[in-house]
Every structure is written in C-alpha cells, then in structure tokens.
C-alpha cells in the first residue's frame, strides 16, 4: 500500500477555496485514506467545511481522516503538505487599495497584485504568511508549502528569501488566456495546450498546440485574430500585436501591469457584488451537502482546476505529470530574468518534487517588462519585512503605474494610515 500523506489546509473556512480543495481531494482517488486537517481562524466557517467534508467522505467511502481546528500549531505536526490561502480583511481592504490611489489620479484597473494598492496588499499579508512559515520550520520542516495567497510572486519571494520552507505558488489565471485562444480559433479549450513563461499574472504563450494532433496553433490564431471582433480582449490583443506573444492572464489582471490599460478596458475595479453572489452560491452548495439535499456524486466532485492535489499526488505516486504553471525560484529557467526572481513556468511533478521546464530567453521587450516588476516586488518585500518606510516610497516611485511624485507621497500617507492596524512591522515615525 502506498504512503498516505497528511495534508493541512490553512484558510479552509473560505467557502470558494475550501470547497475547491475538497472537490480536488475527493476527485484524487489515489490519495483516499490520507489525512486532511482543515484550519481557519473562523471556527464556524471551518466547522461547516469539516461537516461537508465528512459527508462527502462518508458518501464516497473515501476513508480520509478528516479533522478541523482554529490552531494551526495543532494541525501541523507530521504534515507532509501545507496548502495556504489567506487574506487579511480581503474585500474591505482591497476596496481601499483601489479607491485611494484613484483619488490621486491613478487610473489603475484592479489594484490587487500590481500597482500602489498591491504594495499594501503585500505588506498586510507578509506578517501572517511568515509567521505560518516559522511554525512550519519548527513543527514540520520537511513539508511542502503550496501557496495560493496573493500577491503570489511577492509572497513567494519573501518565503524563499527569509525562510527555509520549501514552497511553490499556484495560480489558475492561465485559463483566461486559453479562453482567448479557444474563442478566436473556435477550438474547444480542452484541446488546447499552452506553454507559457514569465511571472505571475504576466506569463506569455511561447507555444500553443492542438493536444490531439500536435499542430502549432499560433499561425491559425494569428490569422483568425486579424478579423475577430476588435472589442474582444482588447488589451491582451494590443499587447500581443506589440510584443509578439499572447499574454495569458486576460485583460483584467494583465491591465494591472500597464498604466494605460484604462484606455482599453474598464477602470471600474473588481466586481465585488459578483464575487459575493458566487460566494453565497457556494455556501448554498455546502449547506445542501451537509443536510443531504445535494447528492455527493461524480457531478459534484469535479476538479476545480487548481493543482495542489495534482502536485501532492504527483510527489507521492511519481506521476511525472506536467503542471502548466507553478511559481518557483528562477535559478536559470528563464535565462534573461534575475536568478532570485520567482517565475511562473510549466513544471513536471514526480517523486523528486517539482522541476521547472527551462525556456532560455524571453524576447527582450517582454523580459524588460518583467524585470521592472521583479525589482518592484523585491523592494516591496524588503520594505514589508523590515518595516522600512523609505523602501515603501521607493516601491511606489518605481512602479510604472505611478506617474507623479506628489501622488506617490499622498498615496503613501493615506494608505499607511488606513493600514496601520495591519502593519505591526512599522514602528511609529
């Protein structure tokens, strides 16, 4: 009988994230019989998730050992894998990250992972993520941390630079790029294979193929794209025309990187109402599973598209599966990006862990865009870890989304003040 790992899921009380992880766990039959510990500071939410998990476990006869706790130090002993997705007052503070820079003339489009708001988003999440890593170092030092927490690149840089924790970051945003290819070419998404390299939310398709035949789809895409509705994915296609490769993240997240994105896409920001409707729909599913109104069957237990359990299964059972995008230290994978960068690349998972596929070089224009962001990422991480106010200002002034020194100063003053309760690493001036 193969080894059955212990998997700790921190942030499991989140309805959308928690249910996604449960679906993936129960879909991965080779891991049935393993141990799963659900962790969240919201006891009511994590208890509900555990009740749903237990119902699924019983109905499927999956034999998982399932428990929950609000104390991660109780969960972590003997953990083989730790999955992490957390946020500090996510919606409330994201709105501040977006609205305050807007007030000072920053026409950004999301304000989550890039731009002035992302400086503070990063610094809010750094203390708790690094605290969790300290616990992993002490309690289960051989565990692999699988991080979903944003801003992905920045937090992975901090983990890699300031801890000894083995970590990989995951993001599903490539789905947006595959959707663009599918829409324009008319080929179903499940038949499209993409190889893309870059940094999180800023990867670039170096290869697009038909899974069935191996045919290179770039010529077909280029031909069909010329006459396709010019309003569709307007920013992604503008960047494609100028830089030669199609970016993968879709217009919304792509727009975070370009100060002129608002000229082509909406600058209204994230649709929080839509998100809340989606969250409530997932809560209804959880309630339905718990009370028995929703059948636990193959229709419910479909993979979420996240790859945490693919990685776990791949390392336990040496699957040699290709994971289309992981965030790992560069170490020469992309030769014209800094070694210490966290790059998002395809990787093969096996009993030896994750091995990124080497690309060589990105085109110069694309590497220049990535390098600028990598420098900002490092400035933000150093600022947030060390409580260095001057580096916060440097990060703001270096970010291409900020065209004004006066705007940078005002954003700094106001966002530092509203984030005061979340930034214990900064002492008073």
Instruction: Give the CA-CA distance, first to last residue.
Output: 60 Å
Q: How would you classify the helix and strand content by structural class?
A: alpha/beta
Poorly predicted runs: none
What's the main sheet like? 6 strands, parallel
Average pLDDT confidence is 96
Strand order of the largest sheet: 3-2-1-4-5-6
Give the H and E element order.
EHEHEHEHHEHEHEEHHEHHHEEEHHH
Count the beta strands: 12
CATH architectural arrangement of the domain at 6-92 and 113-171 and 272-311: Alpha-Beta Complex
Provide the CATH topology of the domain at 6-92 and 113-171 and 272-311.
LDH C-terminal domain-like
CATH superfamily of the domain at 6-92 and 113-171 and 272-311: AglA-like glucosidase
Helix percent band: 40-55%
Radius of gyration: 21 Å
Q: What portion of residues belong to β-strands?
A: 15-25%
Shape: globular
Account of the protein in words:
By secondary structure, the protein is of the alpha/beta class. It has a domain at 6-92 and 113-171 and 272-311: Alpha-Beta Complex (LDH C-terminal domain-like), CATH 3.90.1820.10. 46% of the residues lie in helices and 16% in strands. The protein contains 15 helices and 12 strands. It has helices at residues 15-27, 43-60, 72-75, 90-103, 116-139, 152-162, 174-185, 218-225, 234-243, 250-254, 272-291, 308-317, 364-386, 389-398, 405-418, and strands at residues 6-10, 35-39, 65-69, 81-84, 144-147, 166-169, 192-199, 202-210, 246-247, 321-329, 342-350, 353-356. The mean pLDDT is 96.
């Amino acid at each position: 009988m193969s080894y059955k790992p212990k998997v700790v899921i921190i942030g499991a009380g989140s309805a959308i994230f928690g249910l996604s992880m449960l679906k993936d766990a129960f879909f991965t039959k080779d891991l049935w019989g393993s141990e799963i510990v659900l962790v969240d500071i919201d006891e009511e939410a994590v208890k509900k998730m555990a009740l749903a998990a237990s119902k699924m476990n019983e109905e499927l006869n999956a034999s998982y050992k399932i428990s929950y706790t609000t104390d991660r130090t109780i969960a972590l002993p003997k953990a083989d894998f730790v999955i992490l997705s957390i946020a500090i007052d996510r919606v409330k503070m994201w709105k501040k990250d977006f609205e305050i820079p807007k007030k000072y003339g920053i026409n950004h489009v999301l304000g989550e992972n890039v731009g002035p708001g992302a400086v503070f988003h990063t610094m809010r999440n750094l203390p708790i993520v690094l605290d969790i890593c300290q616990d992993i170092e002490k309690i289960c030092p051989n565990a692999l941390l699988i991080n979903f927490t944003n801003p992905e690149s920045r937090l992975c840089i901090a983990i890699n630079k300031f801890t000894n924790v083995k970590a990989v970051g995951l993001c599903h945003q490539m789905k947006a790029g595959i959707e663009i290819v599918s829409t324009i070419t008319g080929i179903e998404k499940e038949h499209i294979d993409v190889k893309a390299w870059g940094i999180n939310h800023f990867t670039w398709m170096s290869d697009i193929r038909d899974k069935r035949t191996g045919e290179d789809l770039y010529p077909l895409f280029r031909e069909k794209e010329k006459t396709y509705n010019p309003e569709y994915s307007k920013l992604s296609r503008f960047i494609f025309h100028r830089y030669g490769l199609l970016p993968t993240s879709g217009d919304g997240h792509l727009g975070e990187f370009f100060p002129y994105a608002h000229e082509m896409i909406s600058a209204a920001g994230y649709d929080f109402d839509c998100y809340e409707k989606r969250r409530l729909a997932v809560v209804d599913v959880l309630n339905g599973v718990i009370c028995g109104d929703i059948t636990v069957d193959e229709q419910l237990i479909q993979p979420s598209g996240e790859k945490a359990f693919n990685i776990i299964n791949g390392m336990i059972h040496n699957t040699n599966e290709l994971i289309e995008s992981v965030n790992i230290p560069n170490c020469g994978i992309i030769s014209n990006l800094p070694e210490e960068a966290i790059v998002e690349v395809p990787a093969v998972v096996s009993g030896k862990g994750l091995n990124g596929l080497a690309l060589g070089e990105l085109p110069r224009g694309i590497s220049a865009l990535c390098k600028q962001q990598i420098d900002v990422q490092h400035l933000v991480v150093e600022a947030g870890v060390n409580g260095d106010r001057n580096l916060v200002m440097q990060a703001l002034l270096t970010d291409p989304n900020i065209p004004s020194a006066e705007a940078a100063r005002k954003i700094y003053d106001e966002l530092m003040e509203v984030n005061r309760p979340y930034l214990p690493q900064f002492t008073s001036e």
